[in-house]
Structures are given as C-alpha cells and as structure tokens.
Amino acid sequence: MSGFQLNAVPVLSRSSLDRAEHLRGDEQALKEGWAQAKLLRMNKRGQVRIADGAVVLEAATTLAEEPAADAVFLGVESETHLWAVHDNDLEGELTDLRAFGATFTLSDRDTGLLSTAIALLNWHRSARYSATDGTPTTATNGGWSRTSEAGHEEFPRTDPAVIVLIHDGGDRVLLARQHTWPQGLFSLLAGFVEAGESLERCVEREMLEEVGVHVREITYLGSQPWPFPRSLMLGFAAVADPDDALTFHDGEIAEAYWFTRAEVREALAAGAWGSGDAQARLLLPGSISIARTIVESWAAAG
C-alpha cells in the first residue's frame, strides 16, 4: 500500500483558540476587556505554571490595571480576553510545551494558548528593532505587530519547513537520527523551504541533501505549527528506492536506516522517547510532533 493519509489531527493543530482578530486593533475594546481578562505567564524558556494537568491562568489585573505594553492578546474564551506575557520570575510547578505534552493530555484550549504564546512572545524578543529602517519598534495591535519610529509595521514571522516520511511503497520506511539526538532516537527528515522554492521542490532537494535519495510520488499530508521558535511544519510522504546508497551530504544526519512496518509498530507500542527502553534500537518522537502522527498513520495503513 503506497498511499496513506493522516488518521488523526496533529496535536498542535487541534487548537480551539478563538483568536478574535477583529479585536486586536480596537484599543478601547481591549482596555474594557482587561478588567476580566486572564493572563498566561511564560518565562524565556517557554515554561508556564501548571496545576491539575492544566495551564494556570491568573487575573490580568495582577500585572497592570490596563493592557500592558509587553503583553500580547491571544484571543477570547467565553467572552473572556486571554493574554500572555514574559515573566522570568515564575515560581511553582513549571513545565514547557514539549514536556507538558509528554506528561499530560493537552486540551485543545491549552494547545492553542501555549503554541501561540511561545511563537508570539519569542518574536517580540527578537524584533525590538525594525528590519526595514533600524529604528526601535513598539508593540501594536494587541501584540500582533510592531511599528517602528519611522512608521513601518512588521508582523510575526513564520518559517515554512517540510517534514517527510520516505517509504518504499511497501512495508519499509526510512528514519534518521541527528548527531545531537540520543542513541536510538529516530524520526522523519525535515528541512526549511528556501526563497523562491515550491514545497515539492524543497522535498526533493532536502531529501537528496540529507540522505542522498531521489524521491518521487510526493504527497501532502497535513500541517502543524511548531513554535520552536516560529516554524510551520508541512507534512509529506514520498517514495524512494531502498537499494539506493545513503549519503549524508549536509552533515546534520548521523545515521539512517530502513525499518520495517513491524519494527515501527513495536516502537510505537513502547511509547515515545523518554518513556520507554532507553537502550531500544528504535525510539520515536513524542506525541506533540507531527512526525509521530505521520509515523502512526503510515504504520496503521498497512
């Protein structure tokens, strides 16, 4: 069976957050909503407070009496405005999105809050000066843009990247390990889309660069935000010949092997990396990665 589709929505794509874009530029509405608003505090490591397996939100007025200049408007839940702010003095039980998703079942609301807050707050930290005129910028539109002293408005940046399951059209899949990953941890191959490049061409180029294989029958599967720090992962499947020699041209890949569907199913049954046998030959990514959803879908399709 050469073709397959995702059998589930990737975890970080399940957000139920109402972003309420129409309120971002309405300063009066944001000011009026602040009195009853809820606030998510996040430190520079992307950690937040949790309690009973959920993200802790507190009254926005604990930060200021009016919308703070460094707070970002995330959206609305049951007519209550939701905001986020960087706070490096957080105390209590802390966790980040990766660890949270590995330990607890992420609600659709918390998924949207965390992924949006991480991406948006990190962008503000790196966009203090205009890329157009070099002058200092200030947050505008509820934190969804920054405007320079010269009047240039800039918006949060998102970098598209492809992530690809390469299979042989039958019961084998090609998985790879980066040099920085623990022994046994394998995943799909991925790479950033270059300027002026189509997604399909990026799949062909990146797979050739990373493992030296020519792919065909490229099929789009789905997407997921990946706010580490600001990517959008675009999932694909492609077919390659397992008899082709594997060569690691760009230096990112330490090793790659063709695994059988039976081996992948066994690894999936053992749980995500960090929760199973650290000495296992094949460990797979955690649930919040679209890679996990794609691998699970391929394994089930056989």
Automatic annotation (TrEMBL):
InterPro entries: NAD-cap_RNA_hydrolase_NudC, NudC-like_C, NUDIX_hydrolase-like_dom_sf, NUDIX_hydrolase_CS, NUDIX_hydrolase_dom. It catalyses: a 5'-end NAD(+)-phospho-ribonucleoside in mRNA + H2O = a 5'-end phospho-adenosine-phospho-ribonucleoside in mRNA + beta-nicotinamide D-ribonucleotide + 2 H(+). Its EC number is 3.6.1.22. It comes from the Bacteria. Residues 132-148 have a biased composition (Polar residues). Residues 131-153 are annotated as: Disordered. Pfam families: NUDIX. Belongs to the Nudix hydrolase family. NudC subfamily. PANTHER family: NAD-CAPPED RNA HYDROLASE NUDT12, NUDIX HYDROLASE, NUDC SUBFAMILY. This is NAD(+) diphosphatase. The lineage of its organism: Bacteria, Bacillati, Actinomycetota, Actinomycetes, Mycobacteriales.
